[in-house]
Amino acid sequence: MTDPRTAADRLIEIIGSRGEAEATVAVGRLELTRFANSFIHQNVGEEYVNVRLRVAAGGRLATVTGNRADDAALGKLAEDALVVAATQPVDEDWPGLTTAVDIAPADFSHASTNGATPAGRAAAVKAFVDAGEGLSAAGFCDTDSFETAFANSAGHRASARGSRATIDGIHQTGESAGAAHQTSNAFSDLDGAAAGALAADRARRGMHAFDLKPGEYEVVLAPEPVATIAVFLDFYGLNGKACNEGQSFVELGAAQFDERITMIDAPMGPGALGEAYDAEGTPKRSTTLIDRGITKTVVHDRRSGRRAGVASTGHAWAMSGSLGPLAGHVVVKPGTDTVDDMIAAVERGVYVATFNYCRILDPKSQVVTGLTRNGTFMIENGVITGAVTNLRFTQSFVKALGPGNVLGVGNDLRYADSEFGQGVVRAPSLRLAAWNFTGGAAG
Amino acid sequence: MFDHARAAVEAALAAGATYADARYVEARDEQIEVLNGTVEQLDRGEAAGVGVRALVGSSWGFFGTHDLSPAALKSAGSRATEIAKASAVVPGKPSPLADVPVVEADYETPYAEAPLEVPISEKVDLLIAVTAAMQEVKEIRLARASLGAWDTHKWFVSSQGHRIHQHIVETGGGFDATALGDGETHRRSYPQSFGQFETGGFEVVRRWDFLGNAPRIADEAAALLTAADCPEGEMTLILEASQLALQIHESVGHAIELDRILGWEAAFAGTSHLELAKLGSHRYGSELMNITADATLRGALGTFGFDDEGTPAQRVPIVDRGRWVGVLSGRDSAAIAGLPPGGMVRADGYARLPMVRMTNVGLLPGDSSLEEMIADTERGVFMSTNRSWSIDDKRLNFQFGCEIGWEIRNGKLGRMVKNPTYTGITPRFWAQLDRLGGQDEWVHWGTPNCGKGQPMQVAHTGHSASPGRFAEVRVGVKG
User: Fold this and answer.
1) Which of B180, B267, B399 minimises the CB distance to A369?
2) Res. A443: pLDDT tops 70
3) Domain containing A196: what range?
4) How far is CA B427 from CA A328, B286, B396, B398, B430, in A?
5) Which of A9, B13, B174, B195 has its CA 20 to 30 A from that of B90?
6) DSSP designation for B141
7) DSSP labels for B362-394?
8) A130: helix, coil or strand?
9) Is the link from the previous residue into B455 a cis peptide, with omega within 30 of 0?
10) Distance of alpha carbon B152 from its chain centroid, rounded?
11) C-alpha dihedral sign at A252, A254, A255, A256
């Protein structure tokens, strides 16, 4: 297999004195076993090499990508980058390269993921399926094992290994569905039977649903919808580029959220998948985004940081030039409440297991529309009294977490499926004072 | 080039597959984005590799590799078969492949100017000029313009004897102006949200006249800052053609995907409100609703010669005078449903499994016009250009937001309205279609960002549409 450090070094060597350059090389194997109607219907694997080279020749920039790391391919990639850069106007905002800092080679990978086999994933899927006797199961189990390297012409070098494994699926009764999700860096942590049992239980509880009249309701949100909220706050708000462009809700130092809300980006530490540096080679570190309701920080890459007059926080990624820097290891800090406690405190409200197809209407106010899915339940006098059909909402996520609106924070922190990729957010359940449901199954 | 694919197929068969196919793909792309006169993104990409698919019993396996050495191709083929054998731990019912003609063929997108051969400096100059034109309007805080192009060669080989080479060229771009007000942002885009993309060369970009339209778009974005709110209630809704194209994509295109109907996407993208037993009898909409999936339309984004299973591109009726009559299918799903294969299976690159994707799912034109339908409307809203889209997992309950709207009173366009939204239930909404623009307003809109599958795949799809009018639609939904 390609050594990514050798390839990254070679690219910098080829560019030589002809320009500033930074190279990122990732090699790995992604395999995914997908099931539906309780059988494996798609089962795929891929060995990949992703090479990315950004050059700045006399302040003229270009980025090229490729998927080969042999010397001829790297040479062509480097020459292409220089040719393209030469056609560009000088970029007055070029923030320059990350200076050399010590980043010890890091290994966040787990042997069980690195050695996962199609048979192992199939066994996890079988356990998920078998846990829902008489139900119809669908979902996936995947493993990703990778090694990355970074090099730039300022002499900076970094490398790391990582892995991720996920099982995510639903059980269906024919009229209802329930979901479950597990993510870890260790495939051996995944418990297909437990995930399947949880999904099956939720599906069975979701039967005989009735149409609830739309309106404003108190809600208890499971970690999945909380993760979705966190992704929207992250992507559209706590993004340094969005802030620079005046499109973010963020007012640094203001109490924009309830004091029960603390949100951090934690790329390392217990439970984290682990990431040592960003796409520009800036070292990763824990960053407090919201501290007890006060918006503390937005994330930056080198360009957005330069425009804001601050340093990069280490949140560059391949698309940050266009979409802005992102926090990719978000943690919504857990509280002490159990889910049962939170439900018990609700006189009349709704429990939501998952959101679906959320889209922003206005980034500044964070008004989002979406639906509930895979388990929506009526709470009356502190107990769940039945299932309700899916609801559409149109709700400002900032307002929903605003001062006084967070009535409970769960102790059930875990990786949750935000609808926008695995391994991005760890979140607990939340109890919120009000949620604006604007439509039901019937419109 | 066929040799790379053939080596992987032979290895899969040698390892025990009863059927195998493989694609060797060479893909180049270019993405350029300029914001307020500065190049924010200039990326050029190249990727090449082989994806091989193996069938063992009723179970599939797939493996993709960038490594084109003989040993790696052999390994990829045997790995695909190994994965297929693992699938049999949780087996499904036997699923034969529907028969298709076994062909040796070559196809190339008709184009005039190879988009990757046009000098980058010319493209960047155009985008900078477009953003400068928008920045002439003082309220415009963000003026963004972008171009994109893909140039893809595919060599397909199957164990049944297929041998097909295709060269697909796709080009497009767009621009948008964002005006920032007190606590609100308003964006106007051209030719549509995310730009307009078509199969063809750089002539596509020249035809849409970015520079000539930039001042109008900037003026409209600025005017939205002082526009009235969209009215609330049930009223007549007229949709501009690109918004109607997205409405088709979301509430028809995905719903008619046979893999969704069969439950194969249940956990992620979702299923469908459609039941196969009602194919041919289910009423999808009004008599004006005639939808086809046509992969043969010249210039449309979902056009090709053969799909990624080697099935020839086709024109398939989907909705005939309001009645549901067709689906999007591949060889395996069609066989299960007992239908002819539609040739609608495509993959996002060599390393992804081909799956059912929209081709050009479009609404055939009517005999009215935007001018006529406005003149014939007593009270309503005309909405243009998508800003947000959301629909449930059965493709029933939807809510769309548009960038701009105008009230209609007594047959005339009235004041501009901001944040226009509308919501509905798919069959009820389509039943309310009562006017449809004609051939001269019919455009092959392209959607370059259709996500589906796990791992995620992005497809390029086409949706022909003209403006349409719908009665009694709920508009003005607020948060």
Assistant:
1) B399
2) no
3) 4-202
4) 39, 9, 8, 11, 5
5) B13
6) E
7) EEPP-SB-HHHHHHT-SEEEEEEEEEEEEE-TT
8) helix
9) yes
10) 17
11) negative
Query: Across the interface, which of A46, A91, A365 has its CB nearest the CB of B39?
Result: A91
The mean pLDDT value for B256-265 works out to 98
Rounded to the nearest 10 degrees, the angle between the axes of helix B210-224 and helix B120-135 is 30
For B78-135, the DSSP string reads HHHHHHHHHHTTS-----PPPP----EEEEE---SS-TTTS-HHHHHHHHHHHHHHHH
- Angstroms from B414 CA to nearest CA on chain A: 24
ipTM score for this prediction: 0.95
Beta bridge partners of B38: B35
Q: Measure CA B320 to chain center.
A: 21
By the CB < 8 Å criterion, does A25 face chain B?
A: no
Distance of CA A331 to the CA centre of its chain: 10
Token pair, residue A129, equals 């399926």
Percentage of residues in chain A having pLDDT higher than 90: 97
Please give the share of chain B, as a percent, with pLDDT higher than 70: 100
- B208 and B277 co-located in one domain: no
Specify the 3-state DSSP secondary structure of B193.
coil
Q: Do A42 and B355 touch (CB under 8 A)?
A: yes
Nearest chain A Cα distance for residue B240, angstroms: 19
Least CB–CB distance from B401: residue in A32, A169, A361: A361
List, as ranges, residues 380-439 from A with C-beta within 8 Å of B: 390, 392, 394-396, 436, 438-439
Across B328-340, average pLDDT: 97
- Work out how many domains chain A is built from and give that number: 2
Q: Give the tokens for residue B273.
A: 């409100």
**Tokens of residue A321, six digits:** 């030039």
Instruction: Quote the CA–CA distance of B103 and B79 in Å, as a whole number.
Output: 27
Would you place residue B182 in the very low, low, confident or very high pLDDT band (cuts 50, 70, 90)?
Answer: confident
User: Looking at the structure, do residues A385 and A324 belong to the same domain, yes or no?
Assistant: yes
Buried b (16+ CB within 10 A) or exposed e, B398-433: bbbbbbbbbbbeeeebeebbbbbbbbbbbbebbbbb
Residue where one domain finishes, among candidates B224, B254, B288: B224
